Amino acid sequence: MAAERLSFDVLVVGSGASGLAAAVSAERAGVRVGVVTKGALQSCNSAKAQGGIQAAFGDDDSAAQHAEDVWQSSHETADRRLVEVLTDEAPTAIHWLEEHGVEFTHENGGYRLARCGGATRKRLLQVGDRTGHAITTALRDSFQASSGEALPNCPLVSLEPAENGWVATCRRKNGEEQVIDAGAVVLAAGGRCYREAEERRELSTNHPGATGEVTRIALELGAESRDLDALQYHPNGGAWPPTMQGYSIPETTRAYGATLLNSRGEEFTDPLGPRDAVSQAIFDEVDSGRGVETPDGRPAVLLDTTRIPVEDAEISLPYMLRRYRSAGIDPLREQILTYPVLHYQNGGLVIDERAETTLPGLFACGEIAGGTHGRNRMMGNSLLECTVFGRRAGRAAAERAAA
Question: In terms of DSSP H, where are the helices of 129-227?
């Protein structure tokens, strides 16, 4: 038996940072908003994001420089229009997050900024090493305090165009179908790297819900995509002990002085290079016989975290320290084993500056959307993209629904 049919002006699919940003923005625009999720409302990749979020606040920095770094890190494959939106609105996005309760780490009267891989300036803001958790918690609290309605454990199974918008069909945990009418739909359901890793028999940093069904639904509707083959490895996956396998060691370890070493104790790559370059250097080093092996026979190299100043580690890497120390390893006293791990879907659905896909009234933001990062994403730009384009998607979807 089908559940009672529901109706919203804007339906958001997904409750990570981008979905929550879209839902909060749409609700504040004065429309009726519903959020459907595959699992629990708090289950998402965004909450696992540790490193931080980029924005040009330094005296020697600018939005234009940030944009140039994104362009170069993408190997000149990103959509320049989307990149300019991303970097121009970054400072405003940070202040908007603060309005919702996110408390970024400060020092010396300003933000504590770090330089991340591919960046030419220090522009990474952090909330310790739980930045994604802080952002999703704040936005989720804001949404739950609003008039919006959440339908957890109700994954989208089909979407069809209708005369005045869309008809979405979701499936509740008990198996019954939930039909929802919506004036506009925002897809914010993330990528597919968990499923890809399972198929490749590799490790992934991703939440088990990252399996890509919503992307497939959009493609079957005729939405255009780009760069879907360009999956990204996080250069520093945990390789040992077993409890850390698949854990993404924050790249800020390298921002604060850690470096990569081979079995001979030699540095073999720029630790602050773009993600794909650092990952490939590790693969090449292992393939050349200069890697090391974990006690359970997995390939690895060494990450010399003993070079990180204690103060920096305690302020910016507390969660990582707790995780490793609870497993009997102190990263400030011994090198740790690392190897690239499948992490992020760089490509996705084609969107414009309003986050609208090639299908009118269907919007996309976050990892499900392509173009902003091209074929290689910089660290710290995922949470930024979620915030900037989530806000834009929510506002534009509200306008579309009210038209």
Answer: 131-144, 193-200, 213-221
